[in-house]
C-alpha cells in the first residue's frame, strides 16, 4: 500500500508542467486527484489518461483568481471523496520583462494569479481542513522567492510573497494538525516562459533555460512532502538542477 493511498489532493494549474506531472504521479500512488485549470481540453485529456491507468480523478475548469471557483473545486473534492487531504497551489504565470518596459497588465496578471491565487486556495481550503481536523497546503514558489535577477522584479516579488504567506500560515497553524509546505523549483521544464512578450527577455531566457529540471522531479518533491507521517511537517524544499 502506498503512503498516498486514499488521500484526496487538489492540484491547481494542472493542465501542463509541474501540475500535470504531479497529478500523474500521485494518481499512480493511489491518491484521489482533483485537477483544475483554465484549459479544459487539456484537463480532460489528462483525466482520461489517469483513468485509463486505473487512477481516481475528477477535473473542473478553474481560474484561481476567482475565489468562488476555488471554493467550488474544494467543495467538489469534498463531495466526491469525503475529505481534502492536500491542496497544491501550483497555478502561476511568469511574463518576465524589465520594469522600464512598463508592462503593467502583465504585472497585474502575475499579482492576481501568483499571489491572489494562492490566497484563494487557502481561503477555500482552510475552513474545510479545520473542520475535518487535518490537511496540508503545498504552495509552489520558485528560486525567484530567494533572489531577484534582471527582468524578474515583479515575478520574484510575487514569489517572495508566496514564501511569506506560506511561512505565516505554517506558524498560525501550529498545533492545529494542518501542515504547510513551500516547494521552490529551480529552472524546470514548463510553459511558464511561453508567456514572455519582451523580445530581449525571450532571447535571454533561451540561454538561461538550457539546463532544466524535468517537471517530474518537482512532482516527486511534492509527493514526498504529502506522504510523510501525519506528525511530520516538511516546511520548505528548494529543488535546483545540478550544474
Explain this structure to me?
There is one protein chain. A seven-stranded parallel beta sheet has the order 3-2-1-4-5-6-7, with helices on both faces. Helix 1 crosses helix 7 (215-227) and helix 4 (104-132) packs parallel to helix 5 (153-172). The model has no long low-confidence stretch (mean pLDDT 93). The chain has 243 residues and is an alpha/beta fold. The protein has seven helices and seven strands.
In N-to-C order, the SSE pattern is EHEHEHEHEHEHHE
Largest sheet: 7 strands, parallel
How are the strands ordered across the major sheet?
3-2-1-4-5-6-7
Please tell me what the overall shape is.
globular
User: What value does the average pLDDT take?
Assistant: 93
Output the structural class.
Answer: alpha/beta
The number of distinct β-strands equals: 7
Q: Helical element count?
A: 7
What's the assembly state of these chains? Answer: single chain
- Relative helix content: 40-55%
Query: Beta-strand level of the residues, as a percent range?
Result: 15-25%
Give me the Rg, rounded.
17 Å
Spans of 5+ residues with little confidence (pLDDT < 50)?
none
Distance between the termini: 36 Å
Amino acid at each position: 500500500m502506498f503512503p498516498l493511498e486514499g488521500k484526496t489532493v487538489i492540484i491547481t494549474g494542472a493542465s501542463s508542467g509541474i501540475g500535470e506531472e504531479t497529478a500523474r504521479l500521485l494518481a499512480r500512488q493511489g491518491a484521489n486527484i482533483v485537477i483544475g485549470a483554465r484549459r479544459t481540453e487539456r484537463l480532460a485529456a489528462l483525466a482520461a489518461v489517469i483513468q485509463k491507468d486505473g487512477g481516481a480523478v475528477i477535473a473542473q475548469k478553474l481560474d484561481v483568481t476567482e475565489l468562488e471557483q476555488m471554493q467550488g473545486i474544494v467543495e467538489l473534492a469534498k463531495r466526491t471523496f469525503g475529505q481534502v487531504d492536500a491542496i497544491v497551489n501550483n497555478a502561476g504565470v511568469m511574463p518576465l520583462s524589465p520594469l522600464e518596459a512598463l508592462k503593467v497588465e502583465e504585472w497585474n496578471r502575475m499579482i492576481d494569479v501568483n499571489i491572489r491565487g494562492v490566497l484563494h486556495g487557502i481561503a477555500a481550503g482552510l475552513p474545510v481542513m479545520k473542520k475535518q481536523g487535518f490537511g496540508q497546503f503545498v504552495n509552489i514558489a520558485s528560486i525567484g522567492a530567494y533572489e531577484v535577477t534582471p527582468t524578474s522584479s515583479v515575478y520574484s516579488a510575487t514569489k517572495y510573497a508566496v514564501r511569506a504567506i506560506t511561512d505565516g500560515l505554517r506558524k498560525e497553524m501550529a498545533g492545529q494538525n494542518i501542515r504547510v509546505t513551500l516547494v521552490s523549483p529551480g529552472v524546470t521544464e514548463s510553459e511558464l516562459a511561453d508567456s514572455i512578450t519582451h523580445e530581449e527577455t525571450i532571447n535571454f531566457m533561451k540561454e538561461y533555460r538550457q539546463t532544466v529540471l524535468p517537471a517530474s522531479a518537482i512532482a516527486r518533491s511534492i509527493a514526498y512532502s504529502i506522504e510523510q507521517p501525519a506528525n511530520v511537517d516538511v516546511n520548505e524544499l528548494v529543488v535546483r538542477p545540478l550544474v
